[in-house]
Amino acid sequence: MPGTPASRPLRVAVLGASGRMGSEACRAVDGAEDLELVARIGREDDLSAVVDAGAQVAVDLTVPAVTAQNVDFLVEHGIHAVVGTTGWDDESRGALRRRLEEAPGVGVLIAPNFAIGAVLTACFAEIAARYYESAEIIEMHHPDKLDAPSGTAVHTAAAIARGRAAAGLGPVPDATEKDPQGARGAVVDGVHVHAVRQRGLVAHEVVQFGGVGEQLVLRHDSFDRVSFMSGVLLGVREVGSRPGLTVGLDGYLDLG
């Protein structure tokens, strides 16, 4: 009896292919037997090349200024999107959800971080937040990063806020009355977030919890962008079976 024909590789395009993350994503897709890299889109390239190449999934690793426009184009053409570009807020995510209502079957994943360890850190932080009076985040990245605080830190702060709300905790204690230089950092969902930009770093996050007489510290370090690729490939493989908008790679993981 003839064997069962092998399924065809999933056709993938990478937007922002000439950047550090984009070039790493191209290598990862190229090296996966079940995926086929059909388009590498740079800054000056027309997005119509994604459609012409017959891409089924596109990975957006561009810049905040264009990512919403890119994703709208992809959704319009029925192409699933895996988005690692930060800069999305409640308004832009809401607009995307409404757009996806008109495109049944199309899936979009917006992942603040593709590293599995970073996803687990946010998950653990939500659990720990229920038990500690104080919580703060320090995020550290290379100086070429365009936005602050990082999308990962914002996602983690939201997780901490959910944990604190579930436990009925009030505001994080802080008696500071005078801070003209902003030394206490940004406040995201009631959590102070401090951003460091320093040469030699890639992507790092420290989440500190404090209680009477103790401290709990969660830390995740990405020393190389290859650490993000397992999450990128997971997103590419899963997004077609997850219609609508998913925010955070944890939505694709079995974390209970």
UniProtKB/TrEMBL annotation:
Cell location: Cytoplasm
Active site: H141, K145
EC number of the protein: 1.17.1.8
Pfam families: DapB_C (PF05173), DapB_N (PF01113)
Reaction(s) this enzyme catalyzes, per UniProt: (S)-2,3,4,5-tetrahydrodipicolinate + NAD(+) + H2O = (2S,4S)-4-hydroxy-2,3,4,5-tetrahydrodipicolinate + NADH + H(+); (S)-2,3,4,5-tetrahydrodipicolinate + NADP(+) + H2O = (2S,4S)-4-hydroxy-2,3,4,5-tetrahydrodipicolinate + NADPH + H(+)
Pathway(s) of this molecule: Amino-acid biosynthesis; L-lysine biosynthesis via DAP pathway; (S)-tetrahydrodipicolinate from L-aspartate: step 4/4
Binding residues annotated for NAD(+), in chain numbering: G16, A17, S18, G19, R20, M21, G84, T85, T86, A111, P112, N113, F114
UniProt GO molecular function: 4-hydroxy-tetrahydrodipicolinate reductase
Binding positions (NADP(+)): R43
Sequence similarity: Belongs to the DapB family.
Quaternary assembly: Homotetramer.
Name assigned to this protein: 4-hydroxy-tetrahydrodipicolinate reductase
Organism: Brachybacterium rhamnosum
